[in-house]
Amino acid sequence: MNLKKWLPAAASLAAVILQLAVVYNGKHPLAVENYYLYFSIILGAAAVMCAVIGTLNKGFGKIWLYKAPFWTGIVTFLIILNLLTEKFCILPAIYFPSPSRILEAMITDRALLLKCLGYSARLLLTGFFGGAIVGVLTGIAIGFSKTADYWISPLIRILGPIPSTAWIPLVLISFPSAVSASAFLIGLAVWFPTTVMTSSGIKNISNSLFEVSSTLGAGHWYQIFKVGVPSAMPSMFIGLFNGICSSFITLMTAEMIGAKYGIGWYVNWQKEMMSYSNVYAGLLIIAVLCSCLITLLFKLRDRVLVWQKGVIKW
C-alpha dihedral over 211, 213, 215, 216, to 10 degrees? Predict the structure, then answer.
């Protein structure tokens, strides 16, 4: 019996015991409810369930055995954070709220957070897909056309490295609304890495592939969409991954230029109100959203590039 699979459950039990046993210092602001205790109990129950299922199912057991140390580390970090804040008040209370207060902010402010999440998701997806589509088309044009390469590549070298947020003054007077201006800035942040990686992937394709397809009677468009684009897709997905990270950075700034709602707007508003428990709650939601989008992109990449399974390491 491998005891590693029970480590997250043991860590969660330690969190519950310490929360009940260690005396409150009386200095750190408390949440209305002991949300950290409830969260630790739920997390412990889930860890026990996963360990039991892992014992009965060998396939899931291997997955859980691999993930168990990571989740143990997460629970251990929460234990240390809770001790440094709520229990001993070693960290400044105003800037470092306890886990219970962060969870309280997420629960009590859930309606506004969900509304802000919806606004941010609309803005993010609009900008990301727009920038990704234009970036892929631009990259294909540069990779296959010497004329496009001649005219567009210098612009990419000059304009690409400039942060998209630096264009805010010009964008604000060029677009009719803050929403369209913010979507453009996010799209611009995605466009640059997608264009560069797509064109780079096409230019690195071996000429022998095109020579063989031409010998077999393939036309120009067939070579582009049946030979060039599939071969460049690994590089293309790397550009999209970089674009997602850039889009979240831009989102935070873009929502500060007139947006009425959004996670970036929410974080900035709560920071001005000195409500750092709500700030951390918003940042956690951004982190989870970014992680979910990257995971979905990984799944899409694995499905699209199934022919390269076991080859791609990134």
Answer: 170
Match 């490295």 to its residue by tokens.
161
**Burial state string for 112-142 with b = 16 or more CB within 10 A and e = fewer than 16:** ebeebbebbeebbebbbebbbebbbebbbbb
Give 194-206 pLDDT, tens digit per residue.
999 999 888 888 8
Please state, in angstroms and rounded to a whole number, the distance separating the CA atoms of residues 182 and 171: 8
Residue 250, pLDDT score: 87
Topology (CATH level 3) of domain 110-308: MetI-like fold (1.10.3720)
Of 23-37, 56-70, 120-134, where does mean pLDDT reach its minimum? Answer: 23-37
Mean pLDDT of the chain: 87
Q: pTM for the complete prediction?
A: 0.82
Provide the pLDDT for residue 310. Answer: 56
* DSSP structural state of residue 29: P
Spell out the alpha helix ranges (H) of the chain: 7-21, 35-56, 58-82, 99-108, 110-144, 146-159, 168-174, 178-203, 207-215, 220-222, 229-254, 263-272, 276-304
**Domain boundaries defined on the chain:** 3-98, 110-308
Residue 80 backbone phi and psi in degrees, to 5: -65, -45
Q: Which residue type is seen at 105?
A: A
In one-letter notation, the amino acid at residue 212 is: V
Nearest-Å Rg of the Cα atoms of the chain is 25
Give the contacts of 166 (CB within 8 A, at least 6 positions apart): none
**pLDDT on residue 26:** 76
